[in-house]
Design a protein that fits this description.
This protein has about 375 residues and is α/β, with parallel strands linked by helices. The chain contains 16 helices and 11 strands. It starts with a strand and ends with a helix. The mean pLDDT is about 95. Bound molecules: NADPH dihydro-nicotinamide-adenine-dinucleotide phosphate and magnesium ion.
Length: about 375
């Protein structure tokens, strides 16, 4: 039995990961469950999976949770306990399914403790790609991608030499506003943004999918996972979300990974790797599947442009980009700014921050908070 920790168990990825465990009860033992604030769902998960350790990062939520009693389960609360949970005892693999920059420290903690990482929290690689990949290499730790596109690359690259990669073809659904004109985007509501055509995900990543910032973050994530140049990563819009990504090799061959759009598949492969196991994911019927189409991303969605720019410059700039985006998305979800103003916030913050090369974890934490402060100030003073 593989001993696993699920950090961010109450979210979209976390709950689907627990579904994977339910479907393969002989394979996994859930040693740690950790989440932030959803006390009711978390309590049901702890009751069902009986982990050795259960942690809620939010202090007030933890206080409520600690009134419940679960025999044989150690409970803890607060940010430090959440980070420490990543290094718990004999856990073999840590699924990082928490959202945003908050995932960086626990991921580093887990790597330092020699745990393999099933990485859903892409922000970690965006913010600290170099630091994290170097550390993982030094500790002999595997980073197994959960993001569907990177999971696809991972499958296409089994048995291949990364040096023979010509191009990574990163597919994108195009989000809910594919084909729209800039004027159509000015007044879009939160509800419209959250209605993603092919994937059902947490709110932050759903907004990121609409701005194409998600695809931008994935470009940076791919760069660090597969050690390619930015010129070798090409985004291809594929509205059906059946081809999860493709690798073109130096001889001109292209290998693609196809499946129904269901995150349980890449989550499961990351957790069972190197084995494949049966899954309930709907099988594709090629007689019914009429067409698979591909197109160029529309340049009105600036998320890709920002990501390539920030990624190419490197240093602390991807961290700046991520922080500005997190603040802007949050402000949009709360109705403080309009959809297109997410781009204004990112652009403004990116243009104001100096770049520091080869940042340490402390530098990145400092940059994250400074970029957040600037983004907040801009939203407060200039945008409303
Ligand atoms: P959700 O918003 O659905 O869930 C986030 C999880 O993280 C919840 O368990 C939440 O706890 C917890 N969390 C939030 N903030 C903190 C914090 N400060 N400290 C500790 N835990 C926290 O997100 P998703 O599941 O959609 O996404 C998770 C990660 O996976 C993201 O990095 C995303 O980019 C990535 N990803 C997601 C995909 C998807 O299909 N959803 C696809 C590919 C990647 P609580 O709910 O208890 O407050
Ligand atoms: Mg993805």
């Amino acid at each position: 039995m593989k001993k696993i920790a699920v950090l961010g168990s109450t979210g979209s990825i976390g709950t689907q990961a627990l579904d994977v465990v339910r479907n393969l009860p002989e394979e996994f033992s859930v040693e740690v469950l950790a989440a932030n604030s959803n006390v009711e769902l978390f309590a049901r998960q702890v009751e069902e999976f009986r982990p050795k350790l259960a942690v809620l990062a939010d202090e007030a939520a933890y206080k409520k949770f600690s009134e419940k009693k679960f025999s044989g389960v150690e409970v803890a609360g607060g940010r430090k306990a959440f980070v420490d949970a990543a290094a718990f005892d004999d856990v073999e693999i840590v699924l990082t399914a928490m959202s945003g920059f908050a995932g960086l420290e626990p991921t580093i903690k887990a790597i330092n403790a020699g745990k393999n990482i099933a990485l859903a929290n892409k922000e970690t690689l965006v913010v600290a790609g170099e630091l994290v990949t170097k550390l993982a290499e030094a500790r002999g730790v595997k980073i197994l991608p959960v993001d569907s596109e990177h999971g696809a690359f991972f499958q296409c690259l089994q048995g291949e030499d990364f040096k023979s990669i010509e191009k990574l073809l990163l597919t994108a659904s195009g989000g809910p506003f594919r084909g729209k004109k800039i004027d159509d985007l000015r007044g879009v509501t939160v509800k419209e943004v959250l209605a993603h055509p092919t994937w059902n995900m947490g709110k932050k990543i759903t907004v990121d999918s609409a701005t194409l910032v998600n695809k931008g973050l994935e470009v940076i994530e791919a760069k660090f996972l597969y050690d390619v140049d930015y010129d070798q990563i090409q985004v291809v819009v594929h509205p059906q979300s059946i081809v999860h990504s493709m690798v073109e090799f130096c001889d001109g061959s292209i290998i693609a990974q196809l499946a129904a759009p269901d995150m349980r598949l890449p989550i499961q492969y990351a957790l069972t790797y190197p084995r494949r196991m049966p899954s309930p994911v709907k099988k594709i019927n090629f007689w019914e599947l009429k067409e698979l189409t591909f197109e160029k991303p529309d340049e009105i969605f600036l998320g890709l442009k920002f990501a390539y720019e920030a990624g190419r410059i490197g240093g602390t700039l991807p961290c700046t980009f991520n922080a500005a985006n997190e603040v802007a998305v949050n402000a949009f979800l709360r109705g403080r700014i309009k959809f297109l103003q997410i781009y204004d916030v990112i652009e403004k913050v990116l243009s104001r921050r100096k770049v520091l090369n080869n940042p340490t974890l402390e530098d990145l934490i400092a940059e994250d908070s400074e970029a957040r402060r600037l983004a907040e100030k801009f939203i407060e003073e200039d945008l409303i």
